[in-house]
Amino acid sequence: MDSLSPWKRIFIWLYRSLFRLAYKLYRFKNNGNREYYLFALYRTDKPEGNLAYVYDELLRQVPNAKVRFIRGANKWNLSMLKEIPYLAEAKCVILDDYYLPVYLIKEDQNLKIVQLWHAAGAFKKFGYSTIGTNFGPNPSYLKLVPIHATYTHVYVSSTSVVPFYAEAFNLPQERVIPIGVPRTDLFTSVKDVEAVEKKLFSSFPIWNNVDTVRVLIAPTYRAGGAQRESNLNMEKVIKDIAKAINPNVQIIYKAHPYTPVEELNKLAEFSNVLVASSGFINEWMLIADAFMTDYSSSVFEFALLRKPFAHFIPDLHEYETNRGLYQQLEVISDGDMLETSEQLVEWINARSKNEYFDSSRMVSLNFDNTSRVSELIVRDFK
Question: N or C end of the chain: which has fewer CB within 10 A?
Answer without folding.
Answer: N
